[in-house]
User: Fold this.
Amino acid sequence: MRTIAFAAAALAGLLAVDGASPAAAETDQLRAARQYGLSTLPLMIMEDQKLIEKHAAAEGLEGLTVEWVQLGGPGAMTEALISGDLDFGAGGVPSMLTLWDRTKDTPMEVKGVGNVVNMPMELVTTNPNVKSIEDFTEDDKIAVTTIKVSNQAMLLQMAAAQAFGEDEYDRLDHLTVSLPHPEAMSTLASNTGVISAHFSALPYQYRQKKQPGVHLVLSSYDVLGGPASNTVAFTTKRFHDDNPKAYAAYAGALQEAIDIINADKKAAAEAYKRMSNTDQPIEELVEILDDPQVQMTFAPQQTMKMASFMAEIGRLDNTPEAWTDLFFDNMQGQGGS
Assistant:
C-alpha cells in the first residue's frame, strides 16, 4: 500500500484523448484504490488475503500483480481512474453517479462492480446550539471529505432540500470544508474552532459520539429512508471489456471478502486494526460490525434515490431508468435498489 497524489486534469480532455486509444490486451497488473475507515474493510481483506491474485489464478491469469493505493477523498480517485492511472476505485454513490453520467456512452464509461458495504454516516457537532441542520449559522464549519461531490456533501444537500425546500438544497454548501476523516476527527476534538461539525463515517463517528461535547445531528439513514450503500466499487468499460478475467477476479474477490467478514467478524476486526494501526480496541470494532445497521452485502441499496435527487438538482445530465443501468452485468439478479 502506498499513498499517492495525482495531477489534476480536465475530465473532458482526458475522455477525448482516451477515446482514441487502442484497446489494451489482458493486463498483468491491476491497480486498485481504497479510502480510509471501516467502510473499506472488504477492500482491506481483499488486499490482506491477496484475494484478487487468488481469483486471477483461478481465471488463468497466473502472476497478476496487484497494487493498492490509499486516497483521502473521491476527487483524486476520479482523476486517477479517468486518466488511466487506476483500474478500480471505490467510493460513495454520488462519486460513481457523477462518473457514470460524465462518461456515459464513451469507452471510459464508469459503472459499478458491486456494493462494498451498507453503513450509516452521521453528522456530529460540538456546537451545543445545533440540534438539527436548521440551526447551523455562519459561525459553523462542517467537514466533509470533498465539498459538493463526496457522499457526505451530497447527503447534506439532500437533508437541506428536505429541511428548507428543494430550491435550497445548497444552502449549507458554503459552510463545508474538505478534510479526510482522520484529520476531521482530530480537528473537531481539538476545539480550535476550525470546524464545528463533521459529516463522519465509521469507525470515526462511533468514537466521536463518545467524546465530551460531541453530539449527533443527523444520520444518512434518516435522509435516505433506511439502510443504504455507503461504498461501491467501480471501474471503466474499457478495463471491463479489455480485461474480462482481471475484472472477474476483482468482482469475485470482493464477494469473497464480504463472505469472510460475515463469517468471522472478530478476525475481520483484527485485520482492520493491524492494517489501519488504529488504537481502537478489537471489542469496539466487533461491536460496530455487529450493529444491524452495518451490513456487508454485495447488492447496492438506495442508489436510485441518490440518482433521482442528483438529476432533480441538475447534477446529472442522464437519469438511469433502473439501478442495474449503473452496474456491469455481473450485478444482474442481485436484488439491489
In short: The first helix runs from residue 11 to 18. Residues 95 and 149 are 7 Å apart (CA to CA). The beta strands are 29-34, 65-70, 88-91, 110-118, 122-125, 142-144, 176-178, 197-199, 215-219, 229-236.
